[in-house]
Structures are given as C-alpha cells and as structure tokens.
C-alpha cells in the first residue's frame, strides 16, 4: 500500500497555509489588494448618504454639492486603479502557485518507474494537472475573500445596527440557513465533483489514445466502434458534469434567493420606519445600499463554504497522483521560473566511478498484478565489453526483465550490483551516462530530429557521430531541413525503421557504458540492420540485447534463454544448440533450416 493511502491526508487548511508560505509577501500584497477591492462597497453607501444629506441641507460642515460630486469622481478613478492593480497582482500569484503544484506533481511522475509513472490513465493525470491544480490554487484566495467579506459585512452591519438594530438582525436569518444547507450538501457535492472529474479524465485519455493509434484504428476498420466508444464516454461525462453543475447551481439559487428574501423583508421594515420619520433620505440611501450587498455576502459565504468542501476532492486526486510519496510533497517549496532566462541545466558528466566493470543481477523477481505473469529468480552477470543476448518466445518475459532490471518496473525481490556495489535506487543509477535503453516501440516527441536525439544535451559534434552510429546519415541528408526537420507528433512523419534509429542515436549521443536494446532491429531491412550492428560492435561497448536474430545469437558472448519468465539455459550458441531444446527451436525458426 502506498504511503499516501496509509497516511491520513492533511487538511485543506494545511495545504493552503503551505501555498501561502511559498511567497508570504507576494500573498500579503495580493490579499491586501483583494480585501481593499471587496471592502470598497462601503464607500458608495457613505457617499450616497453624504450626497442626499447635502441636498437636504444636513451635510457636515465644509461639504458642498460640488465637493461631494468631486469625491464621487475621485472614488470612481481610485476604484479603476484598485481593480487594475488587483488583477495584475492576482494573476502573478496564481501563476506562481499553479506552477509550484504542477512542478511537484510532474517531478513525482518523472521520479516514478517509467512503466508505472501514473497510477491510472494519462487522461486522469492530465485532468489533475489541469483542473485540480487550478482548484487547489484558487483556495489561496479563500482566506482573504472570507476576511474581506467579514470586513465589509462587519462594517456594513455595524452601520445598519446603528440605523435600526431590529431590522438589521433579519439579515442573520438567511446567513444561518446558508451555513446549514452547505453542511447538509457537503458529502454530495464532493461525490459529484469526484465523478465529474473522473468522467472528464476518461474522455481526455481516450482522445489521446485515439490520436496516438489512428493508423491502427484505420487498419482494423474500427473507426465506427471507436467513435461509438468516445460518444459513450462523452455522454457519461455530460451526465456527470450536468449533475455536478446542477447541484452547484441549485445551491447557488438557494443562497441567492435566501439573501434576496432577507433583503426584501428588511427593506419593507426600513420603509415603514422612514414613513414614521425615524429615517432621513440619506439614512435610507445608506441602508438600501448596504443591506442588499450585506445580504449578498450571505450567498458569497455559502459559495466559499461549498468551494472549500469541493477542493478536498482536488487535493485527494493530487495525493493519489503522488503514488507513494507523502502528500506534503505536493506543496513542497521549489523555485518556479516565470520570467527571465531559464537556468542552464548541466548534463550528467561521466565520472571514473561510472565505468562499468561488471553488472550483477541476483534473484530478480517481478509479478504483474493484472496477469500474475512476469519474471522469476533471474540471475546473470555482464562484464565489460561483453555482448549478451536475451532470447525466448513471445510472452516469455524478455521486455519485463529489461524493465525490471532498469527500474522501469518495481520488482518484488532481487538486487542489482554495479561494480560490486548494491544499487538502492536502480532507476537513478542505471541511466545515462551509465546506461542507455531503447524499447521496442521508442517514444519520440513532436520536435526536430536534433531535439529528439539530444533531449536537452548541449548541441555539439557528438550528435553527428551518433547519427552515423545509428545508420541515419542518409536519411537525415534526405530530410527537408536535415537534423532540424520537424518529425511530427510521436514521429508520425518517420518510418518505423527511422524511429528506431533516431532512438538509437539518442542512446549513442550519451556515450553510455552499457547499451540495452529491446529488439532494436525489428523494423529494419537486412542491409541497414547489418550495418548498424557492425557500427555498434566497432565501439566495443557492453551490450544487453533482446533478440532472436541469427547474426546476434552467433555474435553473443552469452545467451540467456527465457521460458515462462525463468532462465532455463545460458551459454554460447554452440553450447546451447547442444543442450537447449528451446534455443534449437528458436534458432531453427529464425534460420528456417
């Protein structure tokens, strides 16, 4: 069980405090601006009273109609300045907080084993990074919105109590109703919001999968069924979103109408009091201005309460995405670069300790939870400059073995040693510049060929050498812009063989100690494949290769034969052709003899 599921999720208030602590002075400036903005409606009521008292001749000494009009105009200009400053300050703060949350979530995703980077679908992760992060960041506004509401409501109510205490108390009736309704609706709001976000994530993930598998869908003639499935997911999302929105609007309507009812009753009572002569026209203007706004703040209070409850869903979903890390890492403080030059990232530099002498794997065991299959008790040793081939039938566990070895999947048992030193964090150590890996289906980004090879490394002559090692030089020469040709999403403008060789060049440019290939040459023609391996062998690099190719089996210093997740034989080709029936079947199948 993950740490986040074992530990009790911190309160929403804890997360809000940590986000505020990320930039307390910035937050104070934003809070002050917004509190000033929300408290501003106190001024129009006082100006309205002053204006009507001036018309009746009851104005304080020194005030004339012209001076009052001047004050009104000055107040209007000041309000424009406050709105502009508040908007700019608020947007800057919002970018910083959302940037921090997304940075921490992405850091955890990138820190996880590559094959299990997210707990659910990619759509779920995108939904959390987009929608839930915005909701969580919005909660930093909750505090000063509530304080500003109390400042305004407190000041307004104090003035209204001074005018007529009996009438003013009517305002508190809808306030109590709002609090009661928000408490009753709490759990249902959280459930509906969670279902709405999940349904949205399913649609997002499905669209991403469809875009990534257009060719496969077309080949299978499955366009109609795919569209039908997407339509079903869309209908489910529509239902969930509508239910969530309906509940929110229903509560909003209750809040607004309750406030309006209270305002209407108090205005009726105030009107009666005015006819008796207890109110002046200025008093009535002041009362009418404040009362509706104070009553509206009962609805605003209800909105804040429901938003606070709904935000718990966002924090829970984000904690799930952390997968084993403490929920507190969600709001851990790190630099976020929103302006100026980005920091220069230094590429990893190979040290003397990175030199590979021997890699030892002992008792490596991994079972997939879904199928129960995997690899069991895998042990072998690689020495510097050796060429080791892992072979076996489809489903024997070859890819699982590589992923478990490299930390892309988390094994249940076993250990890996680099030059005799046991590795506690395999995924961090068995990475460039020590190890480079190319999977069966390499992932390319929608940038240029050069960007896909370097992936952040400084552009130097090494990229040309890597292209040559990957037998990609002729292809690059034929591209419209050479290495700077954009290859499209997931390399859609390239052939399967070109994609594999771009991925191989990505490995070579890092000059690793150990090259790990998962059936690299599966999409290459015979001539290109032979030339590629000739260039690999010429580098005298240690290699671990999944393959059933005859030429590689014959070249191997060591062959590991996998059957049902276990190594059943090991040795050279000559030895195994005599002792392993499984290897003979694989070899005959490859050669056809």
Q: Descriptors for this entry?
A:
single chain; 593 residues; alpha/beta; Rossmann fold; four-stranded antiparallel sheet; 22 helices; 10 strands; elongated
Brief synopsis:
The protein is an alpha/beta fold and 593 residues long. The chain is 61% helix and 10% strand.
Provide structural commentary.
- With 593 residues, the chain is an alpha/beta fold.
- It has two domains: 3-331, Up-down Bundle (ABC transporter transmembrane region fold), CATH 1.20.1560; 352-591, Rossmann fold (3-Layer(aba) Sandwich), CATH 3.40.50.
- It contains 22 helices and ten strands.
- A hairpin with a 2-residue loop joins strand 4 and strand 5 (421-422).
- Helix 9 packs across helix 12 (281-321).
- It starts with a helix and ends with a helix.
CATH architecture of the largest domain: Up-down Bundle
Q: Name the beta content range.
A: 5-15%
CATH class of the largest domain: Mainly Alpha
Distance between the termini: 51 Å
- The strand line-up of the biggest sheet is 6-7-8-3-9-10
Count of discrete domains: 2
Which assembly state applies to the chains in this document? single chain
Tell me roughly what share of residues is in helical segments. 55-70%
Shape, principal axes of CA atoms: elongated
Q: Nearest-angstrom radius of gyration?
A: 34 Å
């Amino acid at each position: 069980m993950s740490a986040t599921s074992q530990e009790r999720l911190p309160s929403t208030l804890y997360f809000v405090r940590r986000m505020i602590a990320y930039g307390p002075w910035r937050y104070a400036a934003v809070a002050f601006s917004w509190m000033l903005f929300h408290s501003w409606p106190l001024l129009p009521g006082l100006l309205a009273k002053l204006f009507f008292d001036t018309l009746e001749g009851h104005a304080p000494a020194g005030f004339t109609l012209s001076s009052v009009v001047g004050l009104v105009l000055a107040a209007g200009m000041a309000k424009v300045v406050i709105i502009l400053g508040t908007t700019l300050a608020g947007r800057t703060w919002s970018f910083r907080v959302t940037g921090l949350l997304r940075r921490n979530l992405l850091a955890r995703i990138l820190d996880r084993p590559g094959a299990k980077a997210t707990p659910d679908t990619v759509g779920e992760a995108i939904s959390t990074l987009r929608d839930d992060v915005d909701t969580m960041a919005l909660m930093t506004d909750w505090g000063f919105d509530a304080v500003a509401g109390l400042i305004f409501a407190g000041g307004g109510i104090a003035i209204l109590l001074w005018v007529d205490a009996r009438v003013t108390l009517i305002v508190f009736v809808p306030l109590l109703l709002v609090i009661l309704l928000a408490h009753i609706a709490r759990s249902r709001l959280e459930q509906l919001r969670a279902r709405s976000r999940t349904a949205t994530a399913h649609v997002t993930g499905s669209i991403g999968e469809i875009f990534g598998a257009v060719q496969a869908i077309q080949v299978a003639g499955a366009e109609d069924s795919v569209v039908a499935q997407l339509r079903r997911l869309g209908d489910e999302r529509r239902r969930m979103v509508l239910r969530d929105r309906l509940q929110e609007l229903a509560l909003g309507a209750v809040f607004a109408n309750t406030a309006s009812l209270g305002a209407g009753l108090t205005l009726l009572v105030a009107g009666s009091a005015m006819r008796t002569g207890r109110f002046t026209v200025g008093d009535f203007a002041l009362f009418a201005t404040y009362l509706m706004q104070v009553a509206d703040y009962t609805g605003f209070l209800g909105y804040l309460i429901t938003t606070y409850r709904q935000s718990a869903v966002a924090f829970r979903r984000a904690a799930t995405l952390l997968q084993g890390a403490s929920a507190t890492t969600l709001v851990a403080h790190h630099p976020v670069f929103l302006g100026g030059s980005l920091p220069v990232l230094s590429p990893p530099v190979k040290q003397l300790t990175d030199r590979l002498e021997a890699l030892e794997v002992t008792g490596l065991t991994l079972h997939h939870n879904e199928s129960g299959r995997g690899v069991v008790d895998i042990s072998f040793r690689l020495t510097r400059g050796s060429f080791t081939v892992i072979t076996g039938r489809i489903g024997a566990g070859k890819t699982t073995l590589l992923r478990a070895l490299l930390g892309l999947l988390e094994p249940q048992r076993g250990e890996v040693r680099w030059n005799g030193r046991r590795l506690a964090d395999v995924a961090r150590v068995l990475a460039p510049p020590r190890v480079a890996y190319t999977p069966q289906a390499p992932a390319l980004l929608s940038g240029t060929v050069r960007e896909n090879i370097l992936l952040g490394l400084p552009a130097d002559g090494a990229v040309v050498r890597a292209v040559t090692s990957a037998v990609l030089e002729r292809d690059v020469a034929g591209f419209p812009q050479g290495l700077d040709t954009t290859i499209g999403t997931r390399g859609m403008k390239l052939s399967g063989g070109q994609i594999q060789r771009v991925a191989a060049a990505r490995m070579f440019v890092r000059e690793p100690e150990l090259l790990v290939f998962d059936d690299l040459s599966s999409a290459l023609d015979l001539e290109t494949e032979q030339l590629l391996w000739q260039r690999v062998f010429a580098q005298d690099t240690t290699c671990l290769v999944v393959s059933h190719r005859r030429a590689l089996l014959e070249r191997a210093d060591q062959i590991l034969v996998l059957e049902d997740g276990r190594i059943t034989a090991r040795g050279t080709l000559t030895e195994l052709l005599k002792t392993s029936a499984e290897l003979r079947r694989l070899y005959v199948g490859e050669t056809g003899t």
